[in-house]
Amino acid sequence: MNQPVKVFLTSSAFLLALSLTGCSKSNNTEVAQYGKNKKVTQEEFYKAIKTSPSSKTILANLLIYDALNEQYGKKLSSKAVNQEYNNYKERYGDQFASFLSQNGYTTTSFRRMIKINLLSKIALKAQIKPTDKQLKKEWKTYSPSVTVQHILTTDKNTANTVIQKLNNGTSFASLAQKYSVDSSSSSNGGKIAAFNKDNKQLDSSFKDTAYKLKNGEYTTTPVKTTNGYEIIKMIKHPAKGNFEENKQDLINNLYDKWAANSTVMKNVISQTLKDQKVQIKDKDLESALDQYKGSTKSAIN
């Protein structure tokens, strides 16, 4: 239902220029030709690419990826990357290729985006450890994750029809398969992954309504959300329990919040670049990482 944040997207032309310039014995190697014996050399191509407004951003992304991969790559398995990729592929189904195209991805650059996201989270956990004070503060507003089924319809009348059939005893799963326009969950009886109140991908009306339901209950009036009209059924609504038994959830929640905080993640990247002693030798591109210079201390209370 949701799209990932576009974190990393390389320009193949610029990376090609970098690799050709770095590896070739002569920068006069021909890249293209025109007219009578006229040619474009690697050096000319590289200089032209450097004048592009996006060249510094592309170089910064390349260096960030390489630094993260060098420092934390051994902690990230190809299985984890493939699993995340396949999750998106399954979510979008026949629309996956269209999703990639609309967001400016190739399959290769999308995998790279996934990898840099996962590496960034590994870096975050390596650099910052939650304190007891932070965990106890998180506990004050903590709500355990709930699991629901849902049926998304495009209009209120259809939603009311679904509710009437539920009242008459028709199974939720069969109605989800027939009426829900959410293709990512309809074939699974409308069941979606467990979520908590901090989830930013779900509509706030959806979350607020869901948390009011007890196990086995469903909404008896359509719930208006940004995507349409929802019918929600609670599968598992656990009690809050105590601090110790939910400590790992609290830790995970904090990491999720920090990962969504651009200032925190900027500091994590800054520390990684510092650890890897990253330097830009080309004077025309030396300011590419300026936004990551300065303090690497976390902006976490």
TrEMBL record:
Compartment(s): Cell membrane
Enzyme Commission number(s) from the entry: 5.2.1.8
Protein name, UniProt field: Foldase protein PrsA
Keywords, sorted A to Z: Cell membrane, Isomerase, Lipoprotein, Membrane, Palmitate, Rotamase, Signal
Class of enzymatic activity (EC top level): isomerase
GO terms for cellular component: plasma membrane
Organism superkingdom: Bacteria
Species of the source: Lactobacillus kefiranofaciens
Coiled-coil residues: none
Residue stretches making up the PpiC domain: 143-236
Signal sequence range: 1-24
GO biological process: protein folding
HAMAP family membership: Foldase_PrsA
UniProt KW tRNA-binding keyword: no
Membrane association type: Lipid-anchor
Keyword Protein biosynthesis attributed: no
PANTHER family: FOLDASE PROTEIN PRSA (PTHR47245:SF1), PEPTIDYLPROLYL ISOMERASE (PTHR47245)
Gene that produces this protein: prsA
InterPro entries assigned: Foldase_PrsA (IPR023059), PPIase_dom_sf (IPR046357), PPIase_PpiC (IPR000297), PrsA_foldase (IPR050245), Trigger_fact/SurA_dom_sf (IPR027304)
Catalysed reactions, semicolon-separated: [protein]-peptidylproline (omega=180) = [protein]-peptidylproline (omega=0)
